[in-house]
Amino acid sequence: MIKLGLVVGGLGLVLMSCGGGSGGEQQPETKKVQLQSGPEETTKSADIPEVAELTIEGNDQMKFNTKRMKVYEGQKVKLTLKNVGELPVESMGHNWVLLKKGTDKNAFAEASIGAKETGYIAPDQMENVIVNTNTIGGGEEVTIEFDTPAKGSYDFICSFPGHVGMMSGKFVVQ
Ligand SMILES: [Cu+2]
User: Fold this and answer.
1) CA 162–ligand 1 middle distance (angstroms)
2) If you measure from the C-alpha of residue 159 to the centroid of ligand 1, how many angstroms do you get, rounded to a whole number?
3) Whole-angstrom Cα distance, residue 81 to residue 48?
4) Neighbours of ion ligand 1 (CB under 5 A)
5) pLDDT tens figures, 24-59
6) Domains in the chain, CATH or no CATH each
7) I want to staple 122 with a disulfide (CB 3.0 to 4.6 A). Which of 56, 64, 97, 115 is the partner?
8) Cα–chain-centroid distance for residue 27?
């Protein structure tokens, strides 16, 4: 259909995480990530690519197509959010927001309802965000790159007003 024709070019540019200042580095992605002291390191470590490429879709039914995403500590993550719906960003926009541990996702989303100008992330909530995409409408996609946070399980949500109840999941770093 027309989906491909509407793919966002400029907006799809990489939105780097704001931490650290390692944003500009572009090194060959050749070395392997070593699992430190993992219980099954014999078979696993060799199979883990340095870059985890993930795709998640949001649709007009206000749903993500997955509730659980998994990466390995030390990987670089290249995550693409696709809005596979047809509705415009004003009525059915989606974003992908990875929250720091201990953040109440519902309180976060509620506080951000009116924050349209900052991508539905209230400025005083930004401290609870590990990384996020901007908000996109039907037919658009956006890709971000970031380093995995420490091992653990993190909430991801869409913070578009009213969506957190239907659109959330776990981002697991092993
Ligand atoms: Cu959404």
Assistant:
1) 8
2) 6
3) 22
4) 94, 158, 160, 163, 167
5) 444 444 445 555 554 544 445 568 999 999 999 999
6) 3-13+51-173 (2.60.40.420)
7) 115
8) 22
